[in-house]
Write a structure and sequence with these properties.
about 110 residues, Jelly Rolls, about 0% helix, binds zinc ion, 4-stranded antiparallel sheet, globular, 5-stranded antiparallel sheet, single chain
């Protein structure tokens, strides 16, 4: 995993690589973010709504291939990722201050990106 922040933007790109059959995630955030597969895969994302950080309700599942549009992961959705093949993907976050408000420029706060 590595972190890229383009220029003076407020976008945080976290790059991940998984091997075939590997899983990642199993967490939720209190803010939206996007997921973009750049090569390999596909990945299957399983998500459930959370209440007080506890997953509840129906499980939604979707598969993302390299080159597909970014997948929006809503706030308070528990999500986990499984790779069908070796894959490289980014999770993309808006930079936030320590109160969770989006800021114009990344200030080094990784709480907004994980
Ligand atoms: Zn996540």
């Amino acid at each position: 995993m590595s972190v890229l922040v383009p220029g003076n933007s407020n976008l945080i790109f976290r790059r991940f690589e998984l091997k075939a059959g590997e899983s990642a995630g199993g967490h939720s955030h209190n803010y939206d973010h996007s997921m973009l597969v750049v090569s390999g895969g596909p990945i299957t994302v399983r998500g459930r709504r959370t209440v007080d950080e506890v997953p509840v309700g129906d499980v939604y599942e979707t598969t993302i291939h390299a080159g597909d549009d970014p997948l929006l992961i809503l706030a308070d959705w528990h999500h986990e990722i499984k790779a069908s093949g070796p894959v490289k993907y980014f999770c993309i976050f808006a930079a936030r201050d320590d109160k969770g408000n989006v800021v114009a420029k990344w200030n080094g706060n990784m709480d907004a990106a994980g």
